[in-house]
Write a structure and sequence with these properties.
102 residues; mainly beta; five-stranded antiparallel beta sheet; 1 helix
Amino acid sequence: MLDYDDYEDNQPGGMPKRDEFRHLTTLRLTKLLMNQNLRLSLFTYYSPSDEDVYMRPIANYKASDSLAVEVGSNIFFGDEPYTFFGQFEDNTNAYLAVRYSF
């Protein structure tokens, strides 16, 4: 955060303070199975400074050259409701998609 000293000076009492530097690490794991027709993937953001997580697991199955089915979810974790990913904890969701190409 630029001008962090000004931010600290103008922070109202009782409000949680953000860190000057926000750290973020990412991890992607992918496994191809069944002659590469099934793809399992996990993409994760982790912030050690905010102690929150965003995970995105996906399973994609290519049934034919023109039809693919995908199931996945967006998962948010965070102990505090004011952190970047923690504020979305109630927005965790799952989805199903069918794609037809021609």
